Amino acid sequence: MHPNRFTLLAIVLLFAGCPTQDPPLPDDDDTTTGNDDDDDDSGDDDSGDSGDDDDSTPAPLLWPDLPHLDAVVDLARGSTPVWASLISVQDDDGVPAFASYAYADTADRTDFWVASTIKIYTVTAALVLLREQGLSLDTEATFYRRTDSADPWSEDLTVTFRQLIFDVFDHSSNSAYTLLLRFAGIDWLSTAFFTPAHGFQSTALMVPYVSDRPWRYDRGEQQRIVLTDGATTAERTHTWSGTLYDDEVGCAFRYSSRANCSPPSEMAEHMRRLMFHEWLPDSERFAVDPEQLDWVRYGDATTDVMYLPGSPWAEGVLRVFPDADYWHKAGRVTDYALDLHYVDDVTTNTRFAASVVTESTTTAAYDRVSEELTRMLRTPQTYVHLDWLVDGVNPVNADLWVYTEVAGTLELVVKPYSADGMQDSGWTVLPGTTTAVDPGEAWFALTSDCLDPAFDGQQHVRGRFTPTGEAPVATSDLHYVVVDVDVPCP
Predict the structure, then answer these.
(1) Contact 243, 190 (CB under 8 A)
(2) pTM to 2 decimals?
């Protein structure tokens, strides 16, 4: 599924930081889509009634403030450190518009290990360099190296860029990443690619991920890459200047003596620029071949590349949007689990890019945080958190935290554990738990009535908030509770 489900082409609006008011309308001269201006040039007499009310000024988008974002992450993460940045996407009269949000002060921090997420940068860099040379993805790259200009070149290996890029996304190949880093070169990346014009302020790549030959990239060696695309040949040579770009941009985490770093905001921005390339002004586009970028984003009849909705990293997102499309690049090392992704759910018209980092030896915290951020974006006006439940009880007691901008009712809903807890249908309200809720945020302690044998045994359970007006229903994540009707009920 193509993510850019729009019908008009115009300049994109980007709102950095957490918006606190409706975004301003663009100037007239920035919104043309074929006409010279936004004035009525249909030939109709302005003095007459056109039959329409007033369509000269479209209504501004209403961006949610998401003041509960930090609380949502804190409730999900427990004691696990988290860094996160989000870019929400809305349809602005057929054109994508964007608003950025972040967890606490983490958007621009680099005090974590980026692991494999940054491999996506070397893919985009390769596309830029291929277009610059007029070469295809099937170009063969033969890698050579030498220690000194007086030495002969030592040949290492030959591989196509299509294979390298596929391997980066398919199994996060360290050797493919290292060769792409070696192809671009540290100096070129930091001086020509990681620039403010490309959305970078605090990103640097100094560390290859393979030390064995023939893939090894020794920063002190001279590099020569011979490119062969059918009858076309080209050559790329470079030698690292010795500039410590990780120090220059202020990388705050060292994996070795040198660092790779990129803050969550720049990761999310990179994903935005890849997924919405066609809709961006020229100043924000990477100079890539659109067909090559399409292959990276959408693959072909037999190959998925960046589009991986079946990835285990999507599990948290898919618990909220079971049919969502998902593009991503993940990273996992001993103490960190993180993912950069773009989500498009056609059913609810929810679209966003996110970079979520967790300092954890497992992916459990990442799964919880990614799920709850997705749940928050699904119903931005209302959010329900259901705390852990005690089993073997009658009645059921539950603690819930609610954020809502509208009044409504809160309740616990259950269905037999043998049923599908992911289906929206088949839920039953636990008697006695329906509670009126006013706008605001608060904890609620709900206690059911004494339950009859119909509720005995293991039950799926969620918290559910139903707004009084037209806002969508919000539900918590899925839990289970064991009801024992033989327990004396007070």
Answers:
(1) yes
(2) 0.87
